[in-house]
Amino acid sequence: MGIKEETIKMKAAAPYLAASSVEQRNKALLLVAENLRANAAKIFEENKRDLAAAEEDHIAQAVMKRLKFDEGKLRDVIKGIEQLVALPDPLGKVTLKRQLDEGLVLNRVTCPIGVIGVIFEARPDALVQISSLCIKSGNCAILKGGRETTYTNRILFQIIHNSIIDAGLPADCMLQAEQHSEIDELLSCHETVDLLIPRGSNSFVQYIMNHTKIPVMGHADGICHIYVDRDYDPNKAIPIIIDAKTQYTAACNAVETLLIHRDIAEKFLPVLAKALKENGITLRGTKEVTDLIGGETIGEQEFKEYLDLIVSVKIVDTVNDAIAHINKYGSHHTDSIITENAETAELFMQMVDSAGVYQNCSTRFADGFRYGFGAEVGISTGKIHARGPVGLEGLVTYKYKLFGCGQIVDDYATGKKEFHFKDL
């Protein structure tokens, strides 16, 4: 059976999953966590097979880090599941209750999006996070991981799918696609798939966006900045920068460009250069930066996502120049200012056009788990529906329920009756 036929079955199963109780969905999640623990050794064994194959294919180190699914990542995904279970039901929440007239009441109520296709590269932990969020939010999910994690994804999906069935949820509410050819077939399923969430490289996400009629939620780049203001605290700046670059270099929320206020450049840059060198980070700076502290010189417009132990450095004259640079060269993901000046911080946070704007902390906090969302399906840099780390709230929409007792529109159109709006 092809993807199109499978999505038709999922579309039919979607209303049943949407109508399931939160107790049933939480039961499925608890079973997933329990079965992941019970099968840890098997999961690690399958992951070793993927890692060995990746080494033979000379996969880049940045990708290898994402491929690895070890005890730490297993612990994190289980914590994320447990957080999700503890969160309230995202479905059936009344966000508006309004009386239109006597005996005519309008409710706006949260509900699942429906059928979501998630396509991701080299991230087995993403499969668990996405599946868990879809279960809790009552969404059917089609999961397509990269070929680099074939064995890990396969065993993880089997564990999750069996847990869903054991909890009494529809078997057709979750599907794993394994063949690369199935991606294009999935992209053509605009009649049965409600949303696509791609996670991967810039070129990969752009390909998805350019080849489907299905709405796409996600981001194409992670060019994150840290601006060190003239009113910075020396005790905060270096630890924040090092964490943002090294805590997980291959992450989309790792810092890629540092902007330094001119008034502190002569004093701060040598300290920065020393810290970067001690942590194995290559510095690539504009000419005036490298004239001061050495390093590889880059052009005034050569700022990009490295996903490696490399960082770009530039001197700026004012906070406004930093803001202008970020809005021009950034990816609207996450950007941070290091300053003790509250007014400067507020200006930065108001004017930087990004999903996350921080003061005096690492860009690596841009994460659904760290936001207390339980997990995330990805980070959206768009402005419609969901923005930033997309957790449960980003996976629900709403419908309007109108309760009447025989009212007809003609009575209001002809003036026989009048609306009497009242929020309840």
- β-sheet strand percentage: 15-25%
Based on secondary structure, the structural category is: alpha/beta
CATH class of the largest domain: Alpha Beta
Fourth-tier CATH superfamily name of the largest domain = Aldehyde Dehydrogenase, Chain A, domain 1
Give the averaged pLDDT, no decimals: 94
What topology, given as strand order, has the largest sheet? 10-9-11-8-7-12-13
The overall strand count is: 17
Based on CA atoms alone, the radius of gyration comes out at 24 Å
Question: First CA to last CA: what distance?
Answer: 49 Å
What proportion of the residues is helical, as a percent range? 40-55%
* CATH architecture assignment name of the largest domain: 3-Layer(aba) Sandwich
What is the 3D shape? globular
EC number: 1.2.1.41
Family: Belongs to the gamma-glutamyl phosphate reductase family.
Catalytic activity: L-glutamate 5-semialdehyde + phosphate + NADP(+) = L-glutamyl 5-phosphate + NADPH + H(+)
Pfam families: Aldedh
Give a short summary of the structure.
This protein has helices spanning 3-18, 22-38, 40-56, 61-67, 71-86, 124-137, 150-166, 181-187, 202-210, 234-246, 262-278, 287-293, 319-329, 342-351, 409-413; strands at 94-101, 104-112, 115-120, 140-144, 174-177, 195-199, 224-228, 255-261, 282-285, 296-297, 310-316, 334-338, 356-359, 378-380, 388-390, 396-403, 422-423.
